[in-house]
Amino acid sequence: MRNPFIGTGVALITPFRKQETIDFSKLEPLINNLISNGVDYIVALGTTSEAATMTDTERRALQDFIIETVGGRVPIMLGLGGNNTLAVRDAIANTNFDGVSGILSVAPYYNKPNQRGLAQHFKQIAESSPVPVVIYNVPGRTGVNIQAETTLQLAEECPNIIGIKEASGNIAQVMQILRNKPEKFMVISGDDSLTYPMCTMGASGVISVLANALPKEMSSMVKYAIKGDTKKALPLHFRMLPLMNAIFDEGNPTGIKALMEIQGQISNNLRMPLVKSSKQLYNKISSLYDDFNA
Known about the structure:
Elements: E1 7-11, H1 24-36, E2 41-44, H2 56-70, E3 76-79, H3 85-93, E4 102-106, H4 115-128, E5 133-137, H5 139-142, H6 148-157, E6 161-166, H7 171-180, E7 186-189, H8 195-200, E8 205-208, H9 215-227, H10 230-246, H11 254-262, H12 279-293
Parallel strand pairs: 1-2, 1-8, 2-3, 3-4, 4-5, 5-6, 6-7, 7-8
Helix pairs in contact: 1-2, 3-4, 4-6, 6-7, 9-10, 10-12, 11-12
């Protein structure tokens, strides 16, 4: 069976109204646009979705809506993690996984466990989950790095951990994992701008933020890069690179929501403590998008 998480996954944003309620009327066409433009899977309730600012009721409603709208057309990866191992296990036990092909579980944040603690945390999650687990290394947000040795240990010892979303920005670490990992263990880029070089070294694809706005181009670039077709992949990478970088200038999803408003897909509303982009960044992204389309 084909691995459901090879290629381009989209870290799906959540459209909000000015009243800060979820705008489901904008979310449905967004999901349909992503699928029709070739993305391989959807990541629901990840960091980019602003799930940390939602109530449990909202997260459940959002999960149900995404599953219903996707309708089995592409796999869904569900963000489900935290810094309390027992609470994550309880959340897994109380989650309906109908329509969900796997979970994305972020490294514990704030309490900064050591490598042994990280390994035990993910082992317990893997044992508790009825669907495959992709671990998520993003030390810029969590304050702790899952070292390559720990990732490789989990890859060898936990059959239900099928991959890692690597957003450390440390290419040497990524290469160590790629060189020594089991054959079927996936390394997924968590940085849009590093996706091309990672895929050329053997990564399985990306969980992309920019793909919310440019699904066709990102999906095409990843497919070409995985196949080793650098003549087609590299120009696409360089064409998107200025936007890849700019949308993170003031944090995520601040930049991508500005770009998507410029495209006319959503209203540029975020939930506190996140705020809209500065006028300077908004104008910069607008100019770069004009250049992209030129």
